[in-house]
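Lab manual, section 2.4: Encoding a predicted structure.

Procedure: take the sequence of the chain (123 residues), apply the prediction step described in section 2.3, and record the output as structure tokens. A sample record is shown.
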Amino acid sequence: MSEQMRIMRSKELPEELRDRIVARHRSGQGYKKNSAALKVPKSTVASIILKWKTFGTTRSLPRAGRLAKLSYRGRRALVREVKKNPKITVAELQRCSREMGESCRKSTITAALHQSGLYGRVA
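Recorded output:
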């Protein structure tokens, strides 16, 4: 792993590096050579180039909408609990959620279960 990659703390590559990847791509270099030269995974090079082709920029675009209160992983854990014990109350699910580090309201849990196709639970 390169020194530059070890120093980085965020999951996003610096815009300058993304621009360099696109510039090399435009000059005719393939994904493999691009990846080896800049010490970035091939899949990352491919996703940066795809994003550039789609949006015409390498800049981080603003995200739409409000972020979800429950993560995908937390939602799956709740569904697993309900499938294990269909009579579990929402208050107990809320406690389980809090133990996982994702505190949220009862209505949020109910909505998450509804989105997962689970209805008629004690709530």
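Check your result against the sample. The chain has seven helices and no strands.
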